[in-house]
Request: fold
Amino acid sequence: MIDKKPFGRTGHLSTRTLFGAWALQAATRAEADRTLQVLLEYGVNHIDTAASYGNAESLIGPWMDRRRQDFFLATKTDERTREKAWDQLHLSLERLRADRVDLWQLHHLVDPGEWEIAMGPGGALEAAVEARERGLVRFIGVTGHGTTAAAMHRRSLERFDFDSVLLPYNYLMTENPQYNADFESLVVLCQDRNVAVQTIKSIARRAAGEGRLPSPTGASSASARDIEPIPNTWYPPLTAQEDIDQAVHWVLGHQAAFLNTAGDMRLLPRVLDAASRFHTPPPDEVMKEQVARLQMIPVFPESSEG
Reply:
């Protein structure tokens, strides 16, 4: 089973590996139900989805009919105004077959112009606060992609006392000195305020379109071939179990981090298997060898917003 820890100040003991429901964005009902069984097998008790994740909310809804008590349920809005975000929340609740969600997040809030709208008068944050007051959501979070996410989340926490943040984190991203400094500064702030830190892109191998992927060598190659190509992630991920183990264990080695699973159902069992066997993170020299062997490239260029 996968270790649990308090999800910030929410009072929920979440598995350190959370189910990233982008994996369901183009799934069938049968595929979704098989995914649920995998989550139950590993004891995963936290689902992270979004209104913009294709079919995901609608496929999760039937799970909630019979398993609502088993999961901390989080979703997101990518709308920036109060009215549109409010309407999107009600659509999410309808799809999820829930009268409330545990966590509602302002999604991908890194663009400064969009940030001003969402956080200002008549913005999406107002909808989130009202929804919490009405009991439609229990907690409020903010998410972001790109190398500016950590700095923008600090700015967001200066404006509002969010309960969680979500942002990219993997070994290669810490090789970017500015991002690493911003990330660790954010973590210190979050720990001071008991804010949950969710991470994404743990097994990202490189950005889309960054040349032909080299074939893994040795015992990893067979498990890599049976996954290719990956249709449900916009970036090529790691696929061999040994490589996934190293990447997942490295992220979980940061005691503040929760790890959101990758966006392909076929990789889910491998990520969860890796998480279930976590004891200690691999040393940096192991991660450097993996980067060189697989010719890994950061999934986000420096100073990117998404």
